[in-house]
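FAQ: What does the model actually see?

It sees only this:
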Amino acid sequence: MDLRSVIDRRRALQLGGLAGAAAILAACSSSGSDRASRAATTTPGASGASGSGGTEIPEETAGPFPGDGSNGVDVLGASGIVRSDITSSFGSASGVAQGVPLAIELTVVDPSAGGRALAGAAVYVWHCDRDGNYSMYSDAAVDENYLRGVQPADADGKVRFTSIFPAAYPGRWPHIHFEIYPDVAKAATASGLIRTSQLALPEAACREVYATSGYGPSLANLTRTPIDRDMVFSDGYSLQMAKVSGSPGAGYTASLNVPV
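And it is asked to produce this:
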């Protein structure tokens, strides 16, 4: 899946320097001029070091299943996308994603302003289901839009989504995608993108979940692709590894500070 996605910004820099990366991104980016201009101006270092004196979460590929209009499928402008519970589909779709419950808690802050909370920033999250399928794209879930949602950050920069623990599919370490926009109105038109990144899930929690019924080959896939060989996290993931607590019976909470 993500192995067929475009080379991410950091890997592009390693392969061909800044000029080569620009050429690769130009060839692989969407046709939307706004998205292209955002990609050209969002260039944090591979280590996550911010030029403004803070530490920012790394920019990552959105992968081939973003649903943000960059590759033809757009859920961001749909009525119902702003929600906290993303386990079920909305609109004309009616599917519900099954799996071990997972609460996703992200706190969006500005490190250049002493960690000031970015109240009102819109966070769009999406991830695969327990079978490794992405709604709106995978054949088994093409008519669904579950496991996708947008929320505005509260006064403390926090958002919380109710979801399910995602699968480990071939070639990728278990992860959750997210995009940060200035506000909900900007998110609806996929404009003003601040950051695209991915959250990594810790191995211990993954092994607990994947030992339960319904997760099929996830445990084997986890073993085949260690995080240090993952196409996104292999160059470092210290700012992207979530803190996870809970149990398969009670459900889990994954929390991550997101400095942008």
